[in-house]
From TrEMBL:
Belongs to the bacterial solute-binding protein 3 family. The lineage of its organism: Bacteria, Pseudomonadati, Pseudomonadota, Gammaproteobacteria, Halospina. Residues 27-241 form the Solute-binding protein family 3/N-terminal domain. Transmembrane segments: none annotated. The keyword Signal applies. The keyword Signal applies. Gene3D superfamilies: Periplasmic binding protein-like II. This is Polar amino acid transport system substrate-binding protein. Residues 1-25 form the signal peptide. It comes from the Bacteria. InterPro entries: Solute-binding_3/MltF_N.
Length: 250
C-alpha cells in the first residue's frame, strides 16, 4: 500500500469514527407522564420532580445524553414500541411494554398504592372489595399488575377515569364516585396543596418503579446494565437526591 493510500485510509477511518461518535452523542428521548411530585413539567417547560432529578443524575454518571418529553400514556407506550421514544420509567412488570422494552432490575423508587374514600364511606383494603362499587382510576396509569384486574372485572364495577389528581379527588368529594385508587404521595400532595378535606386512604400495596428501554434503541441491553450499575452505586454511596420534601406528604 502506498503512503498516499495509507493516508487516505486513515483519514476515512477517522471520519467514520467521528461520524459514529456524533451519532452516539445524539440525545435519546426520555418520555414521561404527569405524576407530580415525582415527574411533571414545571412552569418553565422543563421536566421536574424527584424521578426527573434522579434519572438525570444517573444518566450523567453513565455519560448518556438524554432529553425529556412529556406524553400522554397511550402515546408514550406507542412511541416506545416504535423507538421514537427510547426511555421511560414505570411500574415493574408493566404489561404494555412487556414485548416492546427491556426492564431494569434495580428500582428507582417504590411507590405506595392507596384506596381513597369519603369519611361517610366504609374503607376497603383490597381491590377485590371494589367489585360492585363506583371507582375512579387515573387515566393513563397502569397501576402495575393491578391493571389486568380492572380489565377483567370492568363489568362488575362502575369505573370512571380522571385526567388529573384534582378532578379525581373532587369526584369523591362531590359523590360522583365512592373510591379512588391512586399513588399515595401524588394524591396526598394534591390534597395538602388544595386544602381538600374529608378524605381518607388505606394503603393496599407497593409498586417498584423501573427503567424501561425500547428494544428499538441501539445498545438497549447495555443501557439497562449501566443504569442498574450506576443506580446501585449511587444508593450504596448515599448519592441519590434528597427525598425529604416528598416525605412530608406521606
Amino acid at each position: 500500500m502506498t503512503r498516499y493510500s495509507l493516508s487516505f485510509l486513515l483519514i476515512a477511518v477517522s471520519a467514520i469514527a467521528g461520524l459514529s461518535a456524533n451519532v452516539q452523542a445524539e440525545p435519546l428521548e426520555f418520555g414521561y407522564i404527569e405524576l407530580p411530585p415525582f415527574g411533571y413539567t414545571n412552569s418553565e417547560g422543563e421536566a421536574s420532580g424527584y424521578l426527573a432529578k434522579l434519572s438525570k443524575q444517573v444518566f450523567q454518571e453513565m455519560g448518556l445524553p438524554v432529553h425529556y418529553q412529556q406524553h400522554p400514556a397511550s402515546r408514550l407506550y406507542h412511541q416506545l414500541k416504535t423507538g421514537d421514544t427510547a426511555l421511560t420509567m414505570g411500574p415493574a412488570g408493566l404489561h404494555q411494554l412487556r414485548r416492546a422494552a427491556l426492564e431494569s432490575q434495580e428500582p428507582a423508587i417504590t411507590l405506595t398504592l392507596a384506596i381513597y374514600h369519603r369519611q361517610d364511606t366504609d374503607p376497603v383494603f383490597s381491590v377485590e372489595n371494589l367489585k360492585g362499587k363506583r371507582v375512579v382510576l387515573m387515566q393513563g396509569y397502569s397501576y402495575g399488575r393491578l391493571r389486568r384486574f380492572f380489565e377483567e372485572e370492568a363489568d362488575n364495577m362502575q369505573i370512571n377515569y380522571a385526567r388529573t389528581h384534582v378532578s379525581a379527588l373532587k369526584m369523591l368529594l362531590y359523590e360522583r364516585a365512592d373510591y379512588l385508587l391512586n399513588y399515595q404521595i401524588p394524591a396526598e400532595t394534591v390534597i395538602a396543596r388544595n386544602g381538600l378535606s374529608g378524605l381518607k386512604g388505606q394503603v393496599i400495596g407497593k409498586t417498584p418503579i423501573h427503567l424501561f428501554v425500547s428494544r428499538q434503541t441501539d445498545g438497549a441491553q447495555q443501557i439497562i446494565e449501566q443504569w442498574d450499575h450506576h443506580l446501585r452505586k449511587l444508593k450504596q454511596n448515599d448519592g441519590l437526591p434528597t427525598f425529604h420534601y416528598y416525605k412530608k406528604f406521606e
